[in-house]
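Minimal example, chain plus S-adenosylmethionine.
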Amino acid sequence: MQFRNRSAGSSLPGHIATGGAGVALALVIGILLAPGATAQRYSDPDTLAPAYPTPQAVVERMLALAEVKPGELVYDLGCGDGRIVITAATKFSARAVGVEIRRDIYESTVARVNSLGLGEKVQIIHGDALKTDLTQADVVTLYLLTSSNERLRPVLEAQLKTGARVVSHDFEIKGWKPEQTEKMMVQGRPHMIYAYRMGLSNRGSKPGR
Ligand SMILES: C[S@@+](CC[C@H](N)C(=O)[O-])C[C@H]1O[C@@H](n2cnc3c(N)ncnc32)[C@H](O)[C@@H]1O
């Protein structure tokens, strides 16, 4: 399957934050929501999390815990600079789709994917994670907030096939039981990974397809 990078073309929030390594996303959010900060932009209801990257070591562990296999289709909802989808393609031989709501990030990530010659394996969509068709996904990766995961959960339950895996960095999906959890230290800071499997983790919630 050949991917074309595309834009949903909506009017989207402006710059929120870019990260140096190692500061917890929750701390970034705290700063953003402080009086006088860029809270007005962050309060956009479409925005599920500020831009803050997962350390590369955590990216690789997330994809390993998700048991990504060659040819599988990986979605990163809120893909930022594309490091998860790029790693899924280059180190796990997967096909991958990143969804990013911010146009500036979307454009630079498309440029990055193209400069790496990955246009046939990696697609970047400019759009809203909550409105993404996930019916073909084998694996979904997340680095959003617990409250955003709560909004996303019914979408995942309605669309993901049984056996699909969902892996979330630092923020759990409330109401689901992780198949695995792992704590990693990267540059002296802890990172949690929650790995879920549709049909097992969401039992007692709503079954997957
Ligand atoms: C914490 S960053 C994670 C980036 C990347 N997934 C990673 O782990 O390195 C969250 C990203 O989600 C994007 N985002 C926020 N709300 C979104 C939405 N509704 N749809 C798509 N992307 C969204 C942000 O612009 C940001 O780039």
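DSSP finds six helices and eight strands in the chain. Residues 25, 46-49, 51-54, 76, 78-80, 83-84, 99-102, 105, 128-130, 143, 169 surround S-adenosylmethionine (CB under 6 Å).
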